[in-house]
């Protein structure tokens, strides 16, 4: 279970605090168990800060606390604070990255199932697409993406196996393996009934809860070789 420690403190010496955190990260490189940190500054109080420190589990957090550098860092941190920092220890019981939900719906409902009503809810009207196998602007907008999805669905019975997904800021990147059986014409190749595979990744940028831009990177040459379009 993911564990988060919340550190609440006052300081007038944040530049020094920032440098202290950088030194700690360097000194504990390869040994610390922290997976993510975030520092927030109170807009209503210029000396009030809150640190969010994430660990894979409470047990991993305890390993980190036992590093000698952690104790030294805490002592130096206290010296930079106005009063003693306060701590809150949280077991994460729900963790949803809302942009991931939109992206997964795009893959599962729009692409795999061909639900174009869902596509209107997932995709921005002015969506911009970047695909190595398409001309610029071919899949832009909802109509462009509908046509592209229809082309792939008409040519193949296929599935996506999402192997890894990373979300940061307004972007979500999904690594996937794709498997398809050619049932219709594709890029001038008549139906073969042949099973083909490829791997790739897609990065979507979201704005206002919808996908605004997409980048598709995948093994197009490998797919074309399997279809007989390129020599082995």
What would you note in describing this structure?
The chain is α+β, with helices and mostly antiparallel strands and 232 residues long. It is built from seven helices and nine strands; from the N terminus they run βαββααβααβαββββα. It has helices at 14-27, 58-65, 68-80, 98-112, 116-122, 141-155, 220-226; strands at residues 3-10, 36-41, 48-55, 86-91, 123-131, 156-168, 171-182, 195-207, 210-218. The strands form two sheets. It has a five-stranded mixed β-sheet with strand order 5-9-8-7-6. A hairpin with a 2-residue loop joins β6 and β7. It starts with a strand and ends in a 6-residue tail after the last helix. It holds the Pfam family SnoaL. It comes from Streptomyces racemochromogenes. This is Ester cyclase. InterPro entries: Cyclase_SnoaL-like (IPR009959), NTF2-like_dom_sf (IPR032710).
Entry keywords:
alpha+beta, 9 strands, Ester cyclase, five-stranded mixed beta sheet, Cyclase_SnoaL-like, NTF2-like_dom_sf, 7 helices, four-stranded antiparallel beta sheet, about 230 residues
Secondary structure blueprint with pairings:
Elements: E1 3-10, H1 14-27, E2 36-41, E3 48-55, H2 58-65, H3 68-80, E4 86-91, H4 98-112, H5 116-122, E5 123-131, H6 141-155, E6 156-168, E7 171-182, E8 195-207, E9 210-218, H7 220-226
Parallel strand pairs: 5-9
Antiparallel strand pairs: 1-3, 1-4, 2-3, 6-7, 7-8, 8-9
Helix pairs in contact: 1-3, 4-5
